[in-house]
Hints:
The protein has 351 residues and is mainly α. It folds into 2 domains: 3-135, no CATH class; 151-339, hpI Integrase, Chain A (Orthogonal Bundle), CATH 1.10.443. Helices cover 53% and strands 7% of the residues. It contains 14 helices and 5 strands. It has a 3-stranded antiparallel β-sheet, with no helix packed on it. A two-stranded antiparallel ribbon has the order 1-2. α8 (170-193) packs across α10 (231-244).
Amino acid sequence: MNKYSYLSNYLSELPDFVFSYIQSYYDGESINTQIGYSIDIRIFLNYLRLFKFKTLSSLEEFTPEHINRVTVEDLIQFKAYLREYQIQTKTADGRTVNRTLRNSSHGINRKLSSVRGLFTYLYKTDKISQNITDKVDFASISQKIKKPLTTQETIRILDVIYNGEKYFKGRDLTEYLNKKQRDIAIFTTYLGTGIRVSELVNLNITDICFETSSFIVTRKGGDEQEIFMPVQVENELFTYLQIRQKCPAKDENALFISRLGGRMTVSSIEKALKKYCMIANITNPDKTRPHALRRTFACRLLEDGVDIKMVAELMGHKNIEVTHKYYAQYSAKARKEVMKSLEVIPKETSD
Length: 351
């Protein structure tokens, strides 16, 4: 069963208003995102059926009126419940067994975010009378600072991608040469525009316009945005397209395709980046993930003096507070430069 069929079957077991919520709020998001939010809502409804609406025999019986009767106290107790709870599952031989599930603070917050989205949707569409989710605090999380790639690390990765002949041998070299221009185009575009990896893999050939030196991406939430290309990105995409248009593909319009002709996936780009990072001797896990390139793009703009509001727009952030996380990285570097030049013992001055 493919993921789209799985999502359809999953939603068929949930109330109609949940289907409408997922379709309205997450149309344009990846299928994995839609499945994830559907699972979160199911956990919430199961909790309500277990502790508040015990007369309901199935999740399909839920109506917006049931949601309207949920209290702040219910949500606070749901948040506590998520720390550790049990579910019933069936084994391969048909036996029913209990499984204990636990959530980290990140897991709790994601599920609360899904529930908040559902309440927001129902309130905005006049299906419930109030949205009480703003009264419930998310779980506190100790924020770990994730650093961008340094200039030298960026140079090392690009050297491996552009000049892999120096690093690969045998079958690895053959594989590298077969996908060389594609990967150059992928990672140059990523570093040069800062788009999300999900937006990158969803690019189509028809999205690219060399006359305007731009391409169109579908941002989170379904909004389209025109992204203007630096000259190097434009050149590498143009070179790659000369090769791409000669390659048979399962999806004729997909810009980046795999060896088998299918559209590149997020996981395949992650795998490729990890391999290049390994060769470039970059081992910090935070720097071997695609988002590190997006983080590097944002920090470089801030270092170059680009206004944070413009950076937020280029990154596709609807909330500038998200962009401030990248500003913190730039700010740390600026603080370091200030402190390096500080003289702890002042020089004597002549009176």
